[in-house]
Specification:
With 210 residues, this protein is α+β, with helices and mostly antiparallel strands. The protein has helices at residues 4-24, 85-97, 102-105, 122-130, 143-152, 196-209; strands at 41-48, 54-56, 61-62, 72-78, 108-114, 137-140, 177-181, 185-190. It has an 8-stranded mixed beta sheet with strand order 1-8-7-4-5-6-2-3, with helices on both faces. The longest helix is centred in the first third of the chain and has 21 residues, at 4-24. The protein is globular and about 40 Å long. The termini are far apart.
Length: 210
């Protein structure tokens, strides 16, 4: 008989495939307007970002629509105990941002949304992000709200059952980095294998088009 954990993982993988099919309908490797080619995949029409409130590491309400004032906000869904992909994406992004001019960097905000809110308490999340850049915003919310916000931008987050340890059987979560513009829409996303130089080039291009 199939174990409950394996059943949850199967459901998670099915959800991941569904999310992949959603994003497969987006154009990739092109800015969609005849301009310079980009590494990121252009979303046409852009995703409308959910306004559901989360909470930042200072305990204040934080919405990806109401509280993102930068010209470009880069959003990643992950968790601090992730052993490989999450820290890799965050480190590569950090390196990419270091390649921007000072004027460009001032126009970019980074938001990390934990997909494991039961484990990633505010202090844990803040300590994790400070290792990359103290300016990064960490936010958390109940798992249902996190799933809602993630799905609004085409990112799959497993709404797994809570484990005895207090955490969740995440099973799978999307590893896309999402670009949110000043109109509260997400016009581009990047896959986990994007390089620092590719991030820098695309972000510069987005800022130039904004």
């Amino acid at each position: 008989m199939r174990s409950p954990r394996r059943s949850r993982t199967a459901r998670a993988l099915a959800g991941a495939l569904a999310a992949g099919l959603l994003l497969a309908g987006c154009s990739g490797g092109d800015d969609g307007g005849g301009g310079a080619a980009t590494t990121g995949s252009v979303v046409e029409p852009p995703f409308d970002v959910a306004s559901a409130p989360l909470t930042d590491t200072d305990g204040r309400a934080f919405s990806l629509t109401e509280d993102t004032d930068a010209r470009l906000t880069l959003v990643f869904f992950g968790y601090t105990q992730c052993p490989d992909i999450c820290p890799l994406v965050m480190q590569t992004l950090t390196s990419g941002l270091s390649k921007l001019t000072d004027a460009e960097r001032e126009q970019v905000e980074v938001v990390f949304v934990t997909t494991d809110p039961a484990t990633d308490e505010a202090a844990v999340l803040r300590d994790y992000l400070d290792r990359f850049d103290p300016s990064y915003v960490g936010v958390r919310g109940d798992l249902d709200t996190t799933v809602e916000v993630a799905r609004s931008v085409g990112v799959f987050v497993a709404d797994g059952e809570q484990l005895d340890s207090g955490g969740y059987d995440l099973g799978s979560h999307g590893t896309y980095l999402i670009a949110v513009d000043g109109n509260d829409q997400a016009p581009m996303f990047w896959r986990q294998d994007t390089s620092a130089a590719e991030y820098a080039a695309d972000i510069s291009s987005l800022l130039g088009d904004a």
